[in-house]
Amino acid sequence: MRNLHFVLLALASLGLVGCTATYQSQNDGTFSRGWMGSGYSESKMADDVYQVSYTSNGFTTVTKSTDYALLRSAELALENGYPYFAIVNQSVTSLVSCMTVKFYKEKPANETLVFDAAQVEREKRALYNLK
Asked: Does the global pTM surpass 0.85?
C-alpha cells in the first residue's frame, strides 16, 4: 500500500510539472504550444512600438507571466536594433500580461521607467533557466 501511495504521489508531481508555463510563442505552428495555449505573442504597432503579451495556463504566477512579457519585449527591442524600451501601457490579469512597449536608440531622460533590453534579457533568462 505504501508503494502505491509513492507511485501516485510521483505521478501527481509529474502532472504538475507538465502544467507549468513554458517560454515560447503562441504562434509557433506546432501542436505542442504549451498547455491551454500558453505563450507569448506580439503585434507591431509602429517601427518602435509593439504590443506584447504572455498568456499563462492558470498554473503560472502573474509575476512569471509579466516577466515573460518583459523578456519578449527585450528580445524584440534587441532584434530591431534598440537597446532600451519603456512600458507605455500595461494590463495584467490572472491569465494575461499585456504591455505596449516603445523602443529607444538612446536612453530617454523624460521616461520614468526605462529598461536596458540586454540586461532584462540576461536577468530573466537566468532567473528562469532559459537558454
From this structure: no
